[in-house]
Amino acid sequence: MSSTTVSVPKYRHHKGSGQAFVQVKGKRHYLGKWDSPESKERYSAFVGELAVRPSLPPSFLPGDNQITITEVCAVYWEHAQRYYCKNGKPSGWLAHIRLMLRKLRETYGLTPAADFGPIKLKAIRQTLIDAGHSRPYINKLVPIIPRMFKWAASEEIVPGGVYHALRTIEGLRKGRTVAHETKPVLPVEEAVVEATLPHLTPVVAAMVKFQRLTGARPGEVCQLCSCDVDRSGDVWEYRPESHKTEHHGRERVIYIGPQAQAVLLPYLLREAEAHCFSPAESEETRHVEQRQQRRTRVQPSQRNRRKARPRRTAKTFYTKDSYRRAVARAVEKANKARTEEAADMGVEASLLPHWHPNQLRHSAATEIRRKYGLEAAQVLLGHAKADVTQVYAERDSRLAVEVAKKIG
User: Domain for residue 364, yes or no?
Assistant: First the structure.
């Protein structure tokens, strides 16, 4: 039931026509002959449905004409803003929904919703292909539209047959579409991470080490607070306040061994609700290092250059994006240093490949699988099914090579 409330409309008499009617949002809805059992029954049903669906405009109520795609998009967007919400905060999925609803309105906004079918959905999909989006991204976006019609059918806004017809469309298959493929996310080599660490701030370097040892997701590392860590056992347990699969009712536990504990321990000495890894703290450390490395005397005009009202200030916690950018900047710094060193030596520079924090999760999964098997990797990564772990844990070819030597 919607959280929106609406006043109950009165059962009214239209003396000119002798009919009963109710008035909602400035529009009259006639129910039949005044004071007849049929009109009172319709009034009762009308009020009941209005209590269930108070946010729907009057044109959606019983006895009206067909509604358009634009009207369905408008009411579904109201529902999505309430539904796709985590801990009181809007989900990132809303951006994808907004994109698809806009495309749908721009192309078929005035079309009756009951007339929308598979061919029209394929036309929408073609616009995504023409825009240059990748095949996996298109397969992620297109189901948003059938999902909207499924919800609309459950609210008796559109016929259920529309949704069932849209379900006949399969996703784009690899090699059978002109939409381009994305590169798979592969583990990052240990040597690349080690070469990047000296160019990271101490806080971000600790985040990288912690994630590499635990296999946590980037977002789980960013939101880590000391109050979320159970330190009662030899192996600590970190239960993130919010995680990717919580809406499925699954619990997420990240196990922290001795090495990861040593990395995390200095960052637990703060208030329980404070984030362990803070950009503000990282910036302060960087400024201290800059002052220590300064070779010239600080001039009076340089003692305090802080703006009274800065447009941007360091936050108290990292996001997935700011974490990724910090790693990217460190790789650029490392490559710049390597280029200058190679130029001095008169040789060609060996540059580090650009990598992102999510690759650390793949690296941990591959290492765990190689040493302890697929089931161990599945448990530590928090996957409900082993086939999901297969995506993260790259197969180690060394075993195949050894077998080939013996049998081949």
Answer: yes
